[in-house]
Amino acid sequence: MSVWNYVVTAHKPTNVTHSCVGNFTSPQELNLIIAKCTRIEIHLLTPQGLQPMLDVPIYGRIATLELFRPHGEAQDFLFIATERYKFCVLQWDADASELITRAMGDVSDRIGRPTDYGQIGIIDPDCRLIGLHLYDGLFKVIPFDNKGQLKEAFNIRLEELQVLDIKFLYGCARPTIVVLYQDNKDARHVKTYEVVIKDKDFVEGPWSQNNLDNGAGLLIPVPMPLGGVIIIGEQTIVYCSASVFKAIPIRPSITRAYGRVDADGSRYLLSDHAGLLHLLVIIHEKERVTGLKSELLGETSVASTISYLDNAFVYVGSSYGDSQLIKLNLQPDAKGSYVEVLERYVNLGPIVDFCVVDLERQGQGQVVTCSGAFKDGSLRVVRNGIGINEQASVELHGIKGMWSLRSATDDPYDTFLVVSFISETRILAMNTDDELEETEIEGFHSQAQTLFCQNAVHNQLIQVTAQSVRLVSCSSRELLNEWKAPSGFSVNVATANASQVLLATGGGHLVYLEVGVGILTEVKHIQLEYEISCLDINPIGEDSKFSKLAAVGMWTDNSVRIFSLPGLDLIVKELLGGEIIPRSVLLCAFEGVSYLLCALGDGHLFNFLLNVNTGELSDRKKISLGTQPITLRTFSSKNTTHVFAASDRPTVIYSSNKKLLYSNVNLKEVNHMCPFNSAAFPDSLAIAKEGELTIGSIDDIQKLHIRAIPLGEHARRICHQEQNRAFATCNVKYSQSNMDESEMHFIRLYDDQTFEILSSYQLDTYENGCSILSCSFTDDSNAYICVGTAYVLPEENEPSKGRILVFVVEDGKLMLVAEKETKGAVYSLNAFNGKLLAAINQKIQLYKWMLRDDGSRELQSECGHHGHILALYVQTRGDFIVVGDLMKSISLLIYKHEEGAIEERARDYNASWMTAVEILDDDTYLGAENNFNLFTVRKNSDAATDEERGRLEVIGEYHLGEFVNRFRHGSLVMRLPDSESSQIPTVIFGTVNGAIGIVASLSQHQFKFFEKLQGCLVKVIKGVGGLSHEQWRSFNNEKKTADARGFLDGDLIESFLDLSRARMEEISTAMRVPVEELCKRVEEMTRLH
Amino acid sequence: MGSLLGNWPSYDPHNFSQLRPSDPAHPSKLTPATYHPTHNRTLPPDNQVISTEATNILLRQFYQRAEEKLRPKRAASENLMPDHGCKQLRGSNADDSKPYE
């Protein structure tokens, strides 16, 4: 049963909705603060650019974000209001590096109609009050007292019901607002009011202005000494104050965002719906405005927010494309643009559709999204894990170990690759043609398995075999010295660094050698009580050639021990517990933090914090990486050290913000890995898989990889056709010629590797692509691409005509083979029992694929089902059809073969406005609706009465805080057949804000465990601004608010891993589960995405 | 154009002075640490938990008018006119409230 669900974000929202600049983290520091729906990011302006400081989750969807400076404060405070009527005032405590809450509260009203044009939150420039417009006809005031403390809020009646914008005017003796509104004849005006706090009322303000541009939508208050306000329309820009009125015409455009450039308010940046950036200048003589001027600067992403930063650098935050850091140049470039884009910040939003495909056929899903809008539309390929780009490979069986060697100590590149087999060692080298060929190092013993190899000090090489340790000259390649194992003993395991060798022979003998000029010296020899299973002396202290610590893994007591060098004195013995022996140990350091990693024979990995000075271990953690023995090796990529864990589930271990992270490598099974940084293949890895040696370069070390394919048009629907290795999309291309804006709709076919357009099909005028599907039909082996369309006529409220087009791909071209007219928009298409199921306006319609006498094919209507407002989203399973309606929630239909009929089986009677549906299992269905909630419903097949059977029971409710456009079954990660997490089915979702998330259906047992953990975490991890997690996740629509149930907040649960050890202990005590076990279980959940 | 574009404000001339733009084809990837507060100052001081006055606007206006009805008489007798700062409001409200008198 999929009733126990776990919701987690795989890719955080990236849609930038708000931004502001001020001295937030210190009086001297300038910060850019940006809001991405449910998160804020704090950046610092530095000589090197924008430096990200903190990503702050907010328990709410951010409606307004403002920095302000209360009287007497040296730095700015941050005001945040959320869409669910909470607000908070945050202050940065630089000493503790914490956000502290100065004030918070609830500004909801019991009665009130939420505003249609969004919430407005503004702060009086003289910090006398905060103004909020949340409900039609009401203006809420939160006054400041003279000490900067907030006082009880009150409402003032606002006569204007259709408010478009409100701003505070500068330089007014009493706080004064200017209101842009529309009257009931659709004319737009501005009006000013003074707020009289004592009387809790407005008085008429100093001026008003009637009959503005019909498209006036944005107010910009102008600071003193000029004062007044700029009103941005679609055809005019107006400056207005008590005494001055100036207007200029502009090219028709919709201005979405503005940013003030100068403190005195004489210049502003404006961005319109086409992403054109204008500079608006107020011309003034002394303090009197004499005119306005608007100049086109260039093009950026379509901005939702603009913040002038410093020294001509500007941040452009976008909801429809990537956000950007731009520079305003004094001279235009070759294209006449004054705008130079210096950085891009990925934004996947709005994700309007996506599909999950396994492009590399490695058993791992990739998400391909339709992202962005208008000119910034793109496809994005989102892939989890780290890819290896194969550059060369040879067939080689039975590899037991690999090491790379430089031909001289000071050589920047590796030359040799030493490959060890059960009874021989072969040496490969890059020849002058950059090919790998077999060579020899005379001083090496090639008729035995190599246990370890290393470049040593004084231009020497070390080879360890079962019989001896050989010291070889790099220049002559001849043997210089040899340490031989005592007779009767053979070396079992060995390790070395540039100047030290540590080896273990049978009988628990541990031998420590040091490397001199042409000589190996046995410095110390001890005997331990058990056999030694693994060793490491990777130098992580100050001396990069000499380690003061040795890590030793033991058989029998399954311990890992730290010894000091050169004395081999035992410092620490850590029992690992369990039956499994350690198979690989590694001393390593990431971001200045030292660790001991210890991998077991069953795919588990322990990590400990290591004190390099004392050798002490702390903060033991355990996670499961795979099921087979793991071998650990360090490697470098882009000058940073990472660890490669070779196993049946190869993993890269790296560190970000001083936290260890584990990222899957997109390879099935790796037995051995060694870095191989050769001149021909710089920064590469040599990887031994079953029967094969591969040399490849490694992707950037990060969890999610996103590849962007800019389209210059807006892709709205996507499907993948495996047979032709192609994506098919429904696209809209917007074009603008002088006054006319037109759109053209296309069906496009893209190669699924190169993303080249293979073929295009232009739809009729007014015809929109609404749905697309790759499918095949009964008695026909061809794969088809079916497209559902609607004729969107300006005079119609709902489309009354559409088409279903059936294409076949021939020689990479889309060929139309059949079309069928429909009586409405084809919102959804599904392959169903070898037929085609379409959702057309209020109807579900089933079509058969019929062979005509002339051999051609046609769609023939078989049966249908009426009774929806608009059937927008359809999923099927067997004979069951789940329909998500525009406003009537989810209903369940069944197709009856014998009768050739579709009947309703059950429905959810709630009035939910659906945005996506998916079938979790036979009985449980998942829905997302337009109040940003998720819910699950269950079919009651066993209920006693028809009435109950006809009702879908709501069994889970959760406020996601994101607008979901699509669910798809699938997984972003490669699943191991025998791991526990592979038993967890997952659904991926994509949202308007560009978030990608996972809904994972847990067992009841798992759910209870994580529910308890979530309950403990809520008490430890506090909501920023004092906002409550419970309230945030509670299901909420116009009619009701109910506690979340049947869903867990994976984001909160996985933040357990970010906690300090002390906090983990606190939770461990409350849970009565050891920290190690908690870490392991949470870590497993993080590997679902 | 040049005159409009010149003199961009500068708060700290060092900011962005050493910016090495990344290849615009490869978007910026720096991810900041996620903040999870565990301290006790996420809750504001008690008097800074703000709510909205419970009185409905209409009732508030009734009370205000009722007070005003009483107040001018006393005010007149005590001759405290200058203390009532907002002449405009009283004037307009006095007009509005005529039907009730």
TrEMBL record, chain A:
All copies of domain RSE1/DDB1/CPSF1 second beta-propeller, residue ranges: 389-698
Domain RSE1/DDB1/CPSF1 C-terminal: 746-1058
Main localization, broad class: nucleus
InterPro entries, per database record: Beta-prop_RSE1/DDB1/CPSF1_1st (IPR018846), Beta-prop_RSE1/DDB1/CPSF1_2nd (IPR058543), RSE1/DDB1/CFT1 (IPR050358), RSE1/DDB1/CPSF1_C (IPR004871), WD40/YVTN_repeat-like_dom_sf (IPR015943), WD40_repeat_dom_sf (IPR036322)
GO MF, one annotated term: nucleic acid binding
Gene Ontology cellular component terms for the protein in this record: nucleus
Localisation per UniProt entry: Nucleus
Annotated RSE1/DDB1/CPSF1 first beta-propeller domain residues: 16-344
UniProt keyword annotations, A-Z: Nucleus
Family: Belongs to the DDB1 family.
Protein name from the UniProt record: DNA damage-binding protein 1
Native source organism of the sequence: Amborella trichopoda
From TrEMBL, chain B:
A Pfam family assignment: DDA1
Membrane-spanning residues: none
Region annotation Disordered: where it falls in the sequence: 1-48, 70-101
One GO biological process term: positive regulation of proteasomal ubiquitin-dependent protein catabolic process
Stretches assigned to coiled coil: none
Domain DET1- and DDB1-associated protein: 3-68
One GO CC term on file: Cul4-RING E3 ubiquitin ligase complex
PANTHER family: DET1- AND DDB1-ASSOCIATED PROTEIN 1
Family: Belongs to the DDA1 family.
Protein name (record): DET1- and DDB1-associated protein 1 domain-containing protein
Organism: Amborella trichopoda
